[in-house]
Structure formats: structure tokens, C-alpha cells
Amino acid sequence: MIAIVMRKELATTLRDGRLLVLGLSLFVLFAGFFLFSSYQLQAQRLEKQRVGATAKEQWNSQSVKNPHAAAHYGIYVFKPDLPSAAIDPGLTPFTGQSLWLEPHKRNLTRFNPSADDVLANRFGQASSSFVLYALLPLLIVALSFNSVSQERERGTLRMLHSLGVAPRALLFGKLLGLLTAFWLVMSPAVLLAALTLAGQFELAIDDLLRLSLLLAGLLAYYTVFAALSIGASAYFRTSRNTLFCLLGFWMGSVFVAPRLGAAIGDVLAPNPSASQFWDAIKTDIAQGLPGDGSKQQRETAFEAQVLAQYGVASKEQLPVGFVSLNRQYNDVYSSKVHQLHFDRLRANFATQQQLAHLAGWLGPSLALRSLSMAIAGTDLAHQRDFEDAAEEYRRYFIDLTEDWDRERSHGTERSAKGAETDWRSVRDFAYTVPTVGFSLKASLLPLAVLGAWLGAALWLLAHSARRLAP
Amino acid sequence: MTTTHILETRNLVVEYQQHRAIDQLNLAVPAGCVYALLGGNGAGKTTTISTFLGFNRPSSGQVLIGGRSLQDQPELVKSELAYLPENVALYDLLSGAENLRFFCALAGIELGREQTGRLLSDSGLQADAHDKRVGQYSKGMRQKVGLAIASAKHAKAMLLDEPTSGLDPSAANDFAQRIRAAADGGMAVLMATHDLFNAKQVADRIGIMKQGRLVEEFDAHSVQHDELESKYLAHARGLA
Ligand SMILES: Nc1ncnc2c1ncn2[C@@H]1O[C@H](COP(=O)(O)OP(=O)(O)OP(=O)(O)O)[C@@H](O)[C@H]1O
Ligand SMILES: [Mg+2]
């Protein structure tokens, strides 16, 4: 029975001019945005590769100099992009893509104390993802808000009743027919995206997995809208009421929920301002974390410990360079303080993101966006993973320069030198984006919200069958 | 129990909120009989038909189809009924043939191409219209698709609500003959109509309803046309 209704629904939806006209215009819109952003992504990837290689080469070809002076020359590293970022640029426009690695301090790709603004602003942006998350659900609503009320008004519902059609079979047949027609019309867009990505990038298995997951997420998302739309059409007596109600839901889901979610996160877990953040780090380094003593006290204690360790009376008699040793000691402490504050800030961002899902009862759009950003590798979790790898690399090459500085000097002299062979021996920053499993792990909450919406929408659809009584 | 009665109501009462639309109705249509239900606007004809189809729930009394209670076996019973309202509701974006196949498939009957064509032609739809979208059909053409659905279902009974209103005289006449033929093939037909001429022409029995009650019932062959008209008007004016 469901299959019969589905076939008929598919045929009528495809013949209905609405789908072709709206579908075609959205396709053109999507294709335009997508081609532009994938072209941009491609250019950006090449640019990052080029600048990254140049920066390392400049590092490599430094003249003979003090290793620490060389460290101050610094290295630029870039966050690599996944091909799927062409579909959902996510936070990319708001988070920095490059990181300047230098001694003594840890830089932020970009410190945005109100990343929650980002969460809100990324909606309403004209991009291919806006077509996917905001406009296509609207197309579904436009196609199906009267799918039952029209049958009621035209009398075909009575014909169906007189033939003993089970209301549930009718509604679920309609759902499947609508979704099939929708995907048939959308398949050129999917094909275009797949071909463009395959042509521009070398797609790995992981990329294919990501793209299929994105498609599956979108399928679930559109199913929510389609089921609610058909359910509402069965529930309300007139098409007008159905349309009002569905438009309200769409606006709530696409526009209100993200802003409300951001506001909730902001109120319940406020972020420090940028100056507060950096000041706290400076203070903790100067005054020390509880129990550690001030910088002065720590350095005095360290000097005594080093002298005892080498069995000498003064730093001038040390067989290794004390300047480097002391600097390294301070850097380790500084790293510890930075780590503490960065972790706290990130934990707060994470809390805000989780809290934002409190607005998820307004609609599934926020959850879908979180999920798709994670899958496209353009969310905070991926940003963090990149930053951690960069920090590890920073410590690696700074430590290396300190080793040279310390071992090629002694006492308080600053005579250590390094040459090009040393600089070249610093390995390149080789970072690979984590696999899709990482994205999924980071998206458990949005997955749960989306799943809950899917379940609720199907339940409501089954429930609205009761209102189909003739 | 008289099993020859395909359509039957016993002391049927149907109410809309407070309003009693059908009041103690006793009606019986045997196989092979065309029963014309006459009555002024609001007499309860459509409500009677809707109740047979399960669109309305009786407040009391019984609705029997082929001797079986509608309330007890709604699905089984629906497979034995065909319904033709004044405007046969079809899907405008599908062709006549596709509509027929769809509605029959819902009734559990898979029709092949040839069979579909034959059913439509037998119902009087010209062959070149079979694959045209129903949106372009006239009222009479839609009715023919409705008839084709009824005959494909091998329904035991047909429920018609003002089937000839809006049809031109020759189409109405053609339709009447098809109804007659269906009844002669053993179908029980209940037809609500305002068309006295049509009623006299095809019906075997005629019932006149007023305020939800069957106020008079007689053999169609036993009255002349003018006699029927005066009976009808007498009830309408409250003289009878
Ligand atoms: N859905 C409804 N809700 C409330 N009252 C209704 C409804 N449908 C019909 N009625 C009332 O029930 C009574 C019988 O109506 P019904 O439609 O059965 O009459 P009818 O004989 O078919 O009239 P007509 O010749 O105008 O088609 C009328 O008084 C009408 O107002
Ligand atoms: Mg009526």
C-alpha cells in the first residue's frame, strides 16, 4: 500500500511545476555558490601549500647565527583543508588558517572571544551551505504543506477512504514519494558536487566517507522537514494554517535557534575578553600559579638547583650555557600556564557549544550545522586538533634550538652558533586532518539531537494519521 | 436476515453535533436493484451515502453491507463498495489510465495496460483520452473513469451522489444506461438525485427523504412521471 501511494506521489510531485521551477532555481543557486567556493578552496589550498613551503625554505636557508635568534625567525604553519570544506566552510571564515610559531609564547590562530557570534552569524550567509540548510527545507515545505489538505479539498481523500486506504500508509507513502522526487530533482546537484570535487581534489576513502555521511545527515534533516510538513498538512484543516505553522517552524529552526543557542551559551558560560585572557596568562607567569612562587623566586630556586646539579659555585662555571637553560626553564613554565588557560578557554567554548543545543528543541538546523561542520572538518574540534599539533611542533623545534644553544655554549656566554645544516634538520610540519571517526566523536550531541528530531517527526506523522478521519 | 439485501440500514440515526441528519432510517437495496433516493436540499441523502462509506459514524442503528456490519468489518466491506460522488475526485496530474490503475491498486487489483484500456473504453471513455491528464477532462469523462474503477473492483454495490447533475442530457442518458447495465449485472445501486426524469428512467425503486426520514417509498415502474413529480412536490411543500 505504501509503495502504491509512493509511486503515485512521486509521479504527481515530479509533474507538479513547483518542484521543477523551485528545484531548478535552487540548483542554479547552489551550483553557483558551490563552484565558487570549491574554486576558492582549491586556490586557498595551493596558496597555503606554496606559502608553507616558502616559509620553511626561508627558515632552512638562514645564515649562521645563534640558535635562539634563529628560533625567533619563526615558522608559519597552515591548517590543511578537506575537500568537503567546499560544501560547508563552517568556521573557516572566522578562525585563522595560519599559525605563527615563535619562541616563548603560544599564538592563537585568531582569538575571537565571542565565537558564539560566529555560531549565529554563520547562518544567513549566502553560501552553498545556506542553500542546503535553509533554502531546501523551504522547498520541501513549499512542495508538501498542502499534500493532505489539497486531497481533502479536492475530494480525493474521500475516494481514498472509500477504497479503505490506511491513513498511516497514505502519509508514509506520501513521505517516501516526496523524498524520492526531491532527491531525483536534487541528484544533478549531488552529481555536480561529486564531479567537481573529484576533478579538483584527490579524494581519499576518508573524504568519500565524509561526503556520504554528509549526504546521510542531510537526508535525515530533509526527512524531518518532509514528515513534519505532511503531518501538519494532515493535522490542520486548511492549507493556510499549515503553511503559517510550517513557516514559523522553519524560521525558528533556521534563524532563531542558533541565535538563541548562542545567547544561552553566552549567558550560562561567558567567555573572557581577549585582554582579560592574555592578562591572566601574563599575571600567572609573573606571579606564579598557586604554590609556585613569583618568577623571581622560581628563577632563584632554579639557579640553585642547576648549580647543585653540576657541583659548581656560580653560573659562570657551568659547562653548558646557562642563558639557554634558564630560558628553557621559563618557557616550560610559560607553556604550562598557557596550556592551563587555553584548556580553560576551549573547555568554555565546548560548553557553550553544548549549551547551544538547548535551543535544539526549536528545530534540527543547529544540530545539522554542527554535524556538517564537524564532517567537513571546519568546526572547533578540528581547529583545536590542528592547533595542538602546531603547538607540539613549536615545542619540538624550539627545544631543538635550545639544545644547540645550551650544548654549544657554557657559563653565561652567548657564543653558541648554528648553521644551515642545523636549520634544515628541523623536520617539516606534517599534519594530517584526523579521520572521520574523530568528527563523529565530536558530534555525539548534535547526532543525538538530529536523531531525536527524526524520531519525533516520524512519530508526529504517524500520530497525525488519526486526523485523517473523513 | 435477508442476504439478498446488499445495502441495508436498520433504524439508522446519524447526528452532526446536536443536529440529527438521519432519523430512524430503514432502507434496503437488493442485488440488481437501482434505488433512487429523492429529497430536497438537506434531506439527508448525502449523509446516508457517506454513512455507508464509513465517513460518518452512526449514533445508533445499523449499517449492513452484504449482510455484514460496517462497524465490525470496515475494511472488508469497503472492498465491496464503489463510490461515485457528483464530482469524481481524481488526480489532475495523472492520466485517466494512471488514475484507474492507482485506485485499483489501492483496492488490491493490479491492472495491465490492456485491461486498463478495456475498462476505460467499456465505461465509455474514448481511447484517445486514456493517456491525457485528467486535468483536461470534462465532468462526464471523470465520471467514466469513476465507473471504470467501480467495474474493475467488481463491487457489489455502487453509491452515487447526484451523478448526473451537470451532465448534458445525452451524457446523462448514456450514464443512466451504464448504471442500468451494471445493475442488470447484479450490482446494487443507491443513487441520490434531484433528477426525477433520470430516477424514473433507471430506478427500480424510489424513496423520498425528508428531514432525515424516509417518508415514502414505491416501485418506480408503478408510477408515471407526472405522478412522481406531484408526489415529490407534495412532500417538498409539506402537503403529504
Ligand atoms: N459536515 C456537516 N456538519 C454539520 N451538519 C451537516 C454536515 N453535513 C450535512 N449536515 C446537515 O445534515 C443535513 C443533511 O445534509 P445532507 O448533505 O445529507 O443533505 P442532502 O440531502 O444531501 O442535501 P443536498 O440535496 O443539498 O445535497 C443538513 O441539514 C445539513 O445541514
Ligand atoms: Mg447531497
In DSSP terms, counting alpha (H) and pi (I) runs of 4 or more, how many helices of chain A? 18
- CATH class of chain B reads Alpha Beta
- How big is the Rg of chain B? 18 Å
Q: What is the name of the CATH superfamily of chain B?
A: P-loop containing nucleotide triphosphate hydrolases
Helix content of chain A: over 70%
Strand content of chain A: under 5%
How would you sum up the major sheet of chain B? 6 strands, mixed
Total helical segments of chain B: 8
Total DSSP E strands of chain A: 2
Pfam families (chain A): ABC2_membrane_2, DUF3526
InterPro entries (chain A): DUF3526 (IPR021913)
Protein name (chain A): DUF3526 domain-containing protein
Keywords (chain A): Membrane, Transmembrane, Transmembrane helix
Word description of this protein:
- The complex is a heterodimer of chains A (470) and B (240).
- Chain A has 470 residues and is mostly helical.
- Chain A has one domain (2-467).
- Helices cover 71% and strands 2% of the residues of chain A.
- Chain A has a two-stranded antiparallel sheet.
- In chain A, helix 4 packs antiparallel against helix 10, helix 8 packs antiparallel against helix 9 (205-235) and helix 11 packs antiparallel against helix 13.
- The radius of gyration of chain A is 29 Å and the shape is elongated.
- Mean pLDDT of chain A is 89; it is low at 111-124.
- Chain B has 240 residues and is an alpha/beta fold.
- Chain B has one domain: Rossmann fold.
- Chain B has helices at residues 45-52, 74-78, 96-106, 113-122, 139-152, 169-184, 196-202, 225-236, and strands at 5-16, 19-30, 34-39, 60-65, 68-69, 81-84, 157-161, 188-192, 205-210, 213-219.
- In chain B, strand 4 (60-65) and strand 5 (68-69) form a beta hairpin.
- The mean pLDDT of chain B is 90.
- Chain A binds chain B through residues 1, 4-5, 7-8, 11-12, 15-16, 154-156, 158-165, 470, and chain B through 50, 53-55, 74-75, 78-79, 81-83, 85, 87-91, 93-94, 98, 102-103, 105-107.
